[in-house]
Each structure stands twice: as C-alpha cells, then as structure tokens.
C-alpha cells in the first residue's frame, strides 16, 4: 500500500503530464501529444470507428489540420484516483475553436482516461470520450449540453 506522500507525488506527476498533453493537443502537435500515450493504447473516440488501437500520428495530424488556429478547452469536475502503477482520471471536457470551413466549435463531452506507470513515467493507456444521446428513440447526439 502506498503512503500518502507517494500518492501525492504520483498525483502531481499525472496532473503535470496531463497538462503537457493538453498543451500539445491545443497546439495541434500530434507527435508531442502521442508521446504521452502507450504504444498499445486503446481509444474510444468521439469519431468513428468504434475503437482505435495504438498510435496514429498521421490520423491525429489530419484531424488537427481541419482546425483553424489552436484548439481551446476547459475541464470541469475532474477526478483522479491513483494506485501504484495504474490510475484513472475522469472529467467533463470542453473543446472550442474554429474549423477550416469556418464552423465554430463549442462542445462539452465526457472523458475517462486509464493511465499506467511505465519505467517511472505515467502514460495514457486507454481513453474514452462520449456525448449523451437523446433517449427518445431518435438516437440524436446531444451536442449542446453544458455543465
């Protein structure tokens, strides 16, 4: 069992890593963003397909290229639980910016990250992002919800 001081050190390391990863994502730097992920990462993204395995720098950069300028964001209700070599982070994420076609994006979604400690370094091994959908039978994604 970890003592409180070690737990705090790991929590601080995880938060620092997530902040650097968020900075790379906001700056649309695919190589740096993926440097915070394991080689065998599993991702359940907002975009199809249902699941991605491993890193796809070209695919991430292609998505970044659909944005004009940086991608902004915000986090609410973040929670972190850290063990010795496994941790879970969850929160509400806001993505803002302008697409190259001029469309403004202001989207809140849910995200959960599974992290592992490899060679003393915390990395994202699993990520899941989702938006709620209407339970009225329409299957419509609810993209206008705000916390």
The class by helix and strand makeup works out as alpha+beta
Task: Please give the alpha-carbon distance between the first and last residues.
Answer: 35 Å
Total number of domains:
1
Beta-strand portion reads 35-45%
Specify the number of helices. Answer: 3
- Report the biggest beta sheet as strand number plus sense, adding barrel if it closes: 6 strands, mixed
Oligomeric state of the chains in view: single chain
Overall strand count? 6
Per CATH, the class reads Alpha Beta
Radius of gyration of CA atoms, rounded to a whole number: 16 Å
- Report the CATH architecture: Roll
Percent range of helical residues: 10-25%
- Please give the order of strands in the largest beta sheet: 2-1-6-5-4-3
Rounded mean pLDDT score: 95
